[in-house]
Design a protein that fits this description.
Protein name: GTP-binding protein
Order of helices and strands: EHEHEHEHEHHEHEEEEEHEEEEHE
Strand order of the largest sheet: 3-2-4-1-5-6-7
Largest sheet: 7 strands, parallel
Helix content: 25-40%
Number of strands: 16
CATH superfamily of the largest domain: P-loop containing nucleotide triphosphate hydrolases
Distance between the termini: 47 Å
Shape: globular
Radius of gyration: 20 Å
Strand content: 25-35%
Structural class: alpha/beta
CATH architecture of the largest domain: 3-Layer(aba) Sandwich
CATH class of the largest domain: Alpha Beta
InterPro entries: CobW/HypB/UreG_nucleotide-bd, P-loop_NTPase, Zinc-reg_GTPase_activator
Length: about 325
């Protein structure tokens, strides 16, 4: 990398807890990207399957001026920041974008990512702009969220707090959120409302207020427990456990085709906190995005190279039972 030939890259972090709509928000920003600009997105997922990259790539490609890199499995800042620095160095050397968007895992530590971006190593390469934290007002009435370290970190580092899914919020939830933010000393952070993750490009140009010296080092994360299995004639199966959460991911090759109705019904009956899927059906490609019992899906006719399905939960589930249920949703193998 040569500082004499490259301007610092405007860089934004888009953070928020699981299922709050980070990927949807980034997709809305990408649709507004100036045609003359080349953007890069660095995305991290708690699981191992890489579904967010597949979703972000569904409407764009390198020919559209977009490069997407991923750091799968847990937190991108783990192991002394090695995964994120490797990915960042590749982007800086090979892509040299006009803007970089970073989507940490909903269970990742955003402070550590900011520490990396503001370190001496990237002082001449990264122009840190606003960190945007997406929230769901309903979470502020739930003890599991307002006592969770990572949820609180996401609020602490925010330069902008965006209340997503505003059309679904009740007045009581909004009042709970406002009271919590005031007590949390976030009442000075600008708060905006949006639906379907729609963010104006102007949010990206807001300045960052992050100062490395303010934050104490987060304790070293517990050792990840990961496994990757491949059944002799079945899908690749990925399991990952960390910090009281577990993920279960499946990769089905392009010989598999799913019954759309059966799969959607299975999703509705699944008792998990988060479910995402990009799968092949008779009608084309089915995209599924579910948070608790709130399920959204869409379709297009463009085929996919493989079907990806991922479950995330804070309560134990049976990988054997889920694989059997998914097998029941397969209508044919070519």
């Amino acid at each position: 990398m040569n500082a004499d030939t490259m301007q610092p890259i405007p860089t934004n972090i888009i953070t928020g807890f699981l299922g709050v709509g980070k990927t949807t928000a980034i997709m809305s920003l990408l649709k507004k990207k100036p045609e003359t600009e080349r953007w890069a997105v660095l995305v991290n997922e708690f699981g191992e399957v890489g579904l967010d990259k597949a979703l972000l790539s569904s409407d764009s490609s390198e020919s559209d001026g977009l490069i997407i890199k991923e750091v799968p499995g847990g937190c991108m800042c783990c192991t002394a920041g090695l995964p994120v620095t490797v990915a960042l160095n590749q982007i800086l050397r090979e892509v040299q974008p006009d803007r970089l968007l970073i989507e940490p895992s909903g269970l990742g530590h955003p402070k550590e990512v900011l520490d990396i971006l503001t370190s001496r190593q990237y002082r001449d390469w990264i122009d840190l702009a606003a960190t945007i934290t997406l929230v769901d007002a309903r979470h502020f009435s739930d003890e599991r969220y307002i006592t969770h370290e990572i949820f609180l970190q996401q609020l602490e580092v925010a330069d902008l707090i965006v209340v997503n899914k505003y059309d679904d919020q009740q007045q009581a939830d909004l009042v709970s959120m406002q009271n919590f933010l005031h007590q949390f000393d976030s009442h000075c952070t600008p708060t905006h409302h949006t639906e379907w993750g729609e963010l104006p490009l102007s949010f990206l140009d807001k300045p960052s207020s992050f100062k490395r010296a303010v934050w104490q080092k987060v304790p070293e994360p517990k050792q990840d427990q990961k496994s990757n299995q491949q059944a002799e004639s079945g899908p690749d199966i990925y399991e990952h456990q960390d910090d009281g959460w577990q993920s279960l991911g499946f990769r089905f090759d392009n010989t598999y085709q799913f019954d759309e109705s059966a799969l959607l019904q299975f999703c509705r009956e699944s008792e998990v906190e988060r479910l995402k899927a990009v799968v092949s059906t008779e009608m084309g490609t089915l995209f599924i995005n579910q948070v608790y019992t709130e399920l959204h899906f869409s379709q297009n006719s463009v085929p996919v190279k493989e079907s990806l399905i991922e479950f995330i939960s804070a309560t134990p589930f049976s990988s054997v039972a889920i694989q059997a249920a998914l097998s029941d949703c397969v209508i044919k193998r070519q």
